[in-house]
């Protein structure tokens, strides 16, 4: 009997999250294939030399197609979010901490940053998404990977610059799409939350056909997702309150004889809108008087309304025994349809309103603390739309039986439109002075919102519109074969060259475009009351690389892999080596170790772009006490042409023990010494370090209100982190009760040290890290799965555990600095129904079956949970059906 190539390949990758269930089958198949001389050599992510080994010198984790189905994931982001090695990625809507990047998903290996994980599709580079995270990171949008055609995910958990070049500092995530599928299958799925009925529906198809020489694959999918408002989970946004609703500060003693504002007031007293509660606001006591606050949190979504459409196709053709071709084309269109915002942002110029202006009822000047449109107005939407294409052409050839070559050309492009509502600053100033509206004679009344016409509101309001584009062209050529034979086997060798051309551009509408003062050369902000806008950007660059790799079987039990890569960049060059060793100490014990260097070139965004994000910042009094509550202010970021590449030295030491074919265990110690890490300066940290520093923007007047912060991209010294990865796979076959499989994977940080403001270092593992450039880092994350197969039935349980961690924010009474550990359990039942020439698979399941709420996080004016580690949806039910013929 001849076993198929696909089954042999499956066994080559026995170390998967669900590998325990496959171990006996793989062992039997491997023995049979070896006896027949048919054990196929394949490429494993991280090396260009083909191998038949299942336990390489480098730590590679494989998520196979079985686990993808067992997970019940409706998106690639949902699939990768629960990887234990992934820490601090953005895979959920969060308008406060990842506002512009909503609708995208990404991976963050080891918590070393979104930009430090290289994402590949079928081993080829993909363009970065045309967007930027709040911390300035660029990343590949994994949401563009077609889940309907996804075969497996290979994760290399160490630096891989020697193989792949820039960006592979923390490791590589390689999404492998199907290429040998034959037949036709359709899938449909429906998912809903147990509360509030937030629904997601999906449908997809996968078709493959061909002959002995040619194979075609086509896949397509649609996904429609309903929104979930934070108002339906009030505990998630109860701290998202602004003191800037509609209030005024008296500059002198005053008495108002009658009307809603009637009363006697002292200098410096805060006076709230008399209809504050009636209009949906809330009163916030101050040292003198009170303010009308604005609870904006319930207006924002925990899950946005989204639409995603995808198409993917490939064709492969064998021209003969020594030449073949594969061409791929992928397209994704993704819309964030709603994304509601506050009715308007606060006016951070805090203007002085004179008697008689803007509807003032006071006899003395007052300072306006508020926003043009408050809690008595509806929420405008801030949609995002992204279109991504990817095309690749690869040719495989052979010089002879021993030497082969591969050449490929891959192009990918991301085009993203972002709309953000605001008000026009110059028009607001004119309207406050009675020179507003189309006629130039109208007044905008900030004391009584009911006095303003819709025409006036429309005249003041606008949208900041931004289009960002990123594209990447990559050419690869690799030659591989055996150099010569040693006593223990052949010496494998690979060498190749690569070139990359990338470009990045930003275009903004006129109102969102910054200018330059011709007299001083200073930046002139966009004519908006809150958003800062930016400059147009249109930049491109290229790089070239050459690399080589050799695999030496020193003895029957010791194998060494050496690699080196030279990369020539526009501004720098880099040489990065790697050495790895694998020792088969006994029949059941393998020891492995590797060391390498890696680097990441600053992105075109970090070199050139000017951007503005909105961040909740806590201000302080000179004595160090908090000044009111945190407020959202502009954080203006400027590109830095002086940035240098990030560099790292990486180590991995591993032990693999497989006492039986049914059990294998592995533990790896890893370490990254990361230098010149590129990040945006912490805006909150700058306020803490110097309340009146040159980059702290304040408005003169009562209490010196914080209006904005200027930050730069910087090379932020070092990150030294190390930890442990563990994996255990165990299978229990029985004659009558089916087969039981168990798997555990986990990652534990021993430390994550970064510089502190005093010139020393601080260990931020186990902290929320709101005041530095690191993201939240729980020390330990675990993923446990168990499955039972018997006949046509299958049951799966997956448990996900996130360790507790802490925030260093000063917490008010009733709040805790501790962020509790979080455990969720997912269950799935699957029934396979087979017909004569077709089959149907029915699955039902529940995610977070015990309805565990996300741990509470005191993050001041942001959401009260950590969107980078926890899911706010609660229990989710789903059902799926697949029909194949």
Major β-sheet annotation: 22 strands, antiparallel, barrel
Mean pLDDT: 90
Specify the structural class.
Answer: mainly beta
Alpha-carbon Rg, integer: 29 Å
The termini sit apart by 24 Å
What would a concise description of this structure say?
This protein is mainly beta. Helices cover 7% and strands 47% of the residues.
Give the helices and strands, then pairings:
Layout lengths: L4 H8 L10 H14 L23 E4 L1 H7 L4 H6 L35 E5 L2 E2 L24 E7 L4 H4 L6 E7 L5 E11 L5 E12 L3 E12 L2 E2 L11 E2 L3 E5 L3 E3 L6 E3 L4 E3 L9 E4 L4 E6 L5 E3 L2 E13 L4 E14 L15 E2 L12 E5 L13 E15 L5 E20 L1 H8 L21 H7 E26 L2 E20 L6 E2 L6 E2 L12 E17 L4 E11 L4 E12 L4 E12 L3 H5 L1 E8 L13 E8 L7 E15 L2 E13 L2 E3 L2 H7 L6 E4 L5 E11 L2 E16 L5 E17 L5 E3 L16 E11 L2 E10 L2 E2 L11 E2 L2 E13 L4 E9 L28 E9 L1
Parallel strand pairs: 2-5, 33-38
Antiparallel strand pairs: 1-4, 2-3, 4-5, 6-7, 6-48, 7-8, 8-18, 9-17, 10-16, 11-14, 11-21, 12-13, 15-16, 18-19, 19-22, 20-21, 22-23, 23-24, 24-25, 25-28, 26-27, 28-29, 29-30, 30-31, 31-34, 32-33, 34-35, 35-39, 36-38, 37-38, 39-40, 40-41, 40-42, 42-43, 43-46, 44-45, 46-47, 47-48
Helix pairs in contact: 1-2
What does this structure look like?
- The chain is mainly β.
- The strands form nine sheets. The chain has a 22-stranded antiparallel β-barrel. A five-stranded mixed β-sheet has the order 1-4-5-2-3. Strands 32, 33, 36, 37 and 38 form a five-stranded mixed β-sheet that branches.
- A hairpin with a 2-residue loop joins strand 34 (646-660) and strand 35.
- The longest helix is centred in the N-terminal third of the chain and has 14 residues, at 23-36.
- The two termini are 24 Å apart.
- Residues 1-39 have low confidence and may be disordered.
